Amino acid sequence: MKHRTFFWFILPTLSAMVLFIALPIVSVFVQSLFVEHEQVLVVSESCGPFGCSPTTTVDTEATAKLREEQPLGRFNGLGTYINRSHLAFAEIGEAWANSDSLGDFWSQVYNLPFYSALTFTLAYTFIVTPLVLALGLAIAVGVNNLPRALKGLAIFISLLPFLVTPLVGSLILFWMVDGDGVIGATIQRIFNDPSLSLKASTALTWTMLMVYGVWHTLPFSFITFYAGLQTVPDDTMEAAQIDGATKWQRLIHVIVPHLMPLVSFVTLMLIMDNFRVFEPIVSFKAEAHAQSLSWIIYNDLRESGNPLYASAGATSLITIILAVILMSPVLVRTWRDFTRKSH
Amino acid sequence: MFLRKIAAATVFAGLMGSASFAADCGPEGQSIRILASDFPAIHAVAGAAEANCGGAAAEFSTNHTTEARQIMNAALTPNPSEYTSVILANATLTQLMNDGLVRPLNDLVEKYKDNIPPNLLITIDGNVMAVAFMANSQHLFSRTDILEQAGVDGIPSSYEEVIEAAEKIRAAGIMEHPLVMNLQTGWNVGEVFNMIYLGHGGEFFTPGSAEPSINNEKGLAALETMKALVEYAHPDHLTHASNETQGLWESGQAALGIMWGSRGAAMLDDEGSSDEVTSNTVLSAAPTVGGGSTPAATLWWDGIAIAANVSDEEAEATFAALVSGLTPDMVAANNDDAVWLLDGFTPGPAAAGVAATAQGGAKPYPMIPQMGLLHAALGSELTDFLKGDESAEQALADVESAYRTSAKEAGFLQ
Q1: Is A24 a domain residue?
Q2: Which tens digit of pLDDT belongs to each residue from B338-394?
Q3: Residues of A in contact with B207 (CB under 8 A)
Q4: Which structural domain range is residue A87 located in?
Q5: In terms of domains, do A67 and A81 share one?
Q6: Are residues A83 and A174 in the same domain?
């Protein structure tokens, strides 16, 4: 294709991407460099139905004047990125100096909100992604080998978890694992411990979130691999069979290499999806045991009644950068395949 | 004689029918737009305002939403703003005042003072910023039958007695976890700390500044009390907010509870629970703590505030309409929906807890501009301590550093 023609083809997509993806990211970045103006506080007295008490209020006129002079706020550079709520360089340095063992150092780092959220987010991504890839492929191969009459039904059932909205799906599971719910009560009976609670233990909460994550994203990898299986050439399979390859050997040496481009694609999608894990944490009310980077952004914007835009912006950008780093091995591989093929 | 009675009744009915005529609705033909939380008492006030003055207004709309707190600042910022009034509480008034989005009501109060008892005015430095109409607070709920069965005399009046009673119930083998509290990570667990810390006589900030002052003896004492309480609380307590605690109570799985007074009426009615539970549930003042004499609680009011960025006529019409609803008739018709601060309220069993907490001299939730940030920091940093993963000292130090970080970003600290 001529470069000129290509340009006109890509122009609508490109402009939409600039407008709706690139510009907002730039705007978020700019906002993350500024913090709010100094709030001019005045001491006053407040009275109400329960009596009077001394208090402080914000002098809104003085603050408004400051705001008018510098509408974006005070320039803070990368200060927000390195404060305690984010990369916390100062706190980590202090922890390194004050800790006598690596375990002690780690527990001090894990106490910082960003790093504890990062730990969960990474653990979630690295456990859920391979499980979903392997199980998705297994189910796809299984369904593909079913008799024709059963295939439709099996595909429909396997797709069901994908049809449920994440928030609703996780709420349903949340009620099931409650001490009074089906799963929760059964587990209590098996272990004969009436106060055993999946919601009260960090390890069990993590497990619950990850099981939910696998359950919910499995249909995506299943259906993609199932579609890929339909394109495996019969000739190659027959040749392998004549050469005496067992079913297992055919799967590993013929089918999987054939599906490799799809595996890259599914891996990319899963990493992006899992790295922004959010809904199950809210639905499972799991904040006490597991927080993710996306949850921190949500919390910064919502919890105090005074949205912390710089904080949320900084976490967003760090999340984007980390997601790119995580995806880069797969991206590099795809790029190599592409250039090899085009030469 | 009979005919005369009929005639008199007709005239009376006619007068009643034109009740809107009687209510002073201020300037006519204005647009009245109200943003409010979503619970029965607020529906009653907004509904009465619409019945009285909806006819005189060109537009009367009410948005009842549980997300009111999240959208109010954004909705009131443009000029003219999306709503002419917000029905709000202590903390949300501060949130709007921080951005200068509500107007002083001194002139309007002077003009429409008939329905407004003076003690309901929320004044800050002499400016009336809101008019309160109902009160709320968390306080003690007890199951008298279970307390009696466990050999507890009377209803506990301090947290120490609550813990002792819980231990007796456990020892008697009646319930392993007799206590329910709203301890969900986030706002709820922060609020429990606030109550118990105030009960210990603590101050949140160095007076007159935004410097936090919770990392002290009283803060540690408050955390120790919380730790002793969660020992007897349902194992899932870190996921429990009002809906969950109410459910546990109504299903008879708890004997002692620290819950919101506004839930009282729903818990005492004959829906969703058994007679055994409702007939033995007693609402009483929030317990005192650490030998203190005032109930460990924060008092809340709900009230009316008027947006700054609307025309004076719209502001007046909105204020007049809302105030016209604060009548004894409205209160009588919705008596059990709230602890009304208005004339005509007959306190029932559902109001006993809030009334006793207020009479005991509990402190109101602090209306300090940076309180929301400290509350959020408490909400996210205290759970590690309650889970047993870190010391009380570390938890309080974490709260202060988390608060300092966000307060610097919000401009309260340098």
Answers
A1: no
A2: 899 998 898 889 999 999 999 999 999 999 999 999 999 999 999 999 999 899 999
A3: 54
A4: 76-111
A5: no
A6: no
How is residue B371 written in tokens?
């309180």
User: Which residues in chain B have Cβ-Cβ distances shorter than 8 Å to A43?
Assistant: 208
Q: Are residues A170 and A205 in the same domain?
A: yes
Residue A3: inside a domain, yes or no?
no
Residue A327 lies in a domain: yes
pLDDT given at position B17:
40
Q: Which residues of A touch B121 (CB under 8 A)?
A: 47-48
Residue among B283, B367, B316 nearest B88 (CA): B367
Q: Closest partner residue to A35 among B358, B364, B409, by Cβ? A: B409
Q: Which of A133-137, A313-317, A333-337 has the lowest mean pLDDT?
A: A333-337
Among residues A233, A234, A230, A218, which one has the least CA distance to residue A270? A218
Cβ of A53 within 8 Å of Cβ of B414? The answer is no
Q: Which residues of B touch A282 (CB under 8 A)?
A: none
Length of chain B: 414
Q: State whether A306 and A192 are in the same domain.
A: yes
**What's the number of domains chain A is made of?**
3
**CB atoms A199 and B120 under 8 Å:** no
CB atoms B123 and A302 under 8 Å: no
Regarding whether A100 and A235 lie in a shared domain, the answer is no
Local structure of residue A83 (DSSP, 8 states): S
Set out the domains of chain B in order of their start, with CATH numbers.
2-135+299-351 (3.40.190.10), 138-296+370-410 (3.40.190.10)
Cβ–Cβ gap A111/B411 under 8 Å: no
pLDDT in tens, B227-282: 999 999 998 999 999 999 999 999 999 999 999 999 998 899 888 889 999 999 99
Q: Is residue A9 in some structural domain?
A: no
| pTM attached to this predicted model | 0.90
- B20: buried, middle or exposed (CB in 10 Å: 19+, 13-18, 0-12)? middle
Are A294 and A146 contained in the same domain? yes
Report the residue of A42, A45, A46, A114 to disrupt the B interface, i.e. the one with the largest count of B CBs within 10 Å: A46
Cβ within 8 Å of residue B303, ≥6 positions away: B87, B88, B89, B93, B120, B122, B130, B131, B132, B133
> Nearest-CA neighbor of B230 among B182, B283, B298, B290?
B182
User: Is A48 in contact with B235 (Cβ distance < 8 A)?
Assistant: no
Which domain CATH number covers A134?
1.10.3720.10
DSSP string, B153-206: -S---BHHHHHHHHHHHHHTTS-S--EEE---TTHHHHHHHHHHHHHTT--SB-
Residues A201 and A211 in one domain: yes
Contacts of A197 in chain B (CB under 8 A): 235-236
Kindly list the residues from chain B whose CB atom is less than 8 angstroms away from the CB atom of residue A35: 408-411
* Whether A45 and B376 lie within 8 Å, measured CB to CB: no
Query: Which chain A residue's Cα is nearest to B130?
Result: A48
Closest approach of A50 to chain B, Cα-based (Å): 7
What pLDDT is recorded for position A130?
A: 97
Please identify, among A111, A127, A162, the residue that sits at the C-terminal boundary of a domain: A111
Q: Complex ipTM, two decimals?
A: 0.89
Helices (H) and strands (E) in chain B, counts: 19, 12
Are A81 and A71 found together in one domain?
no
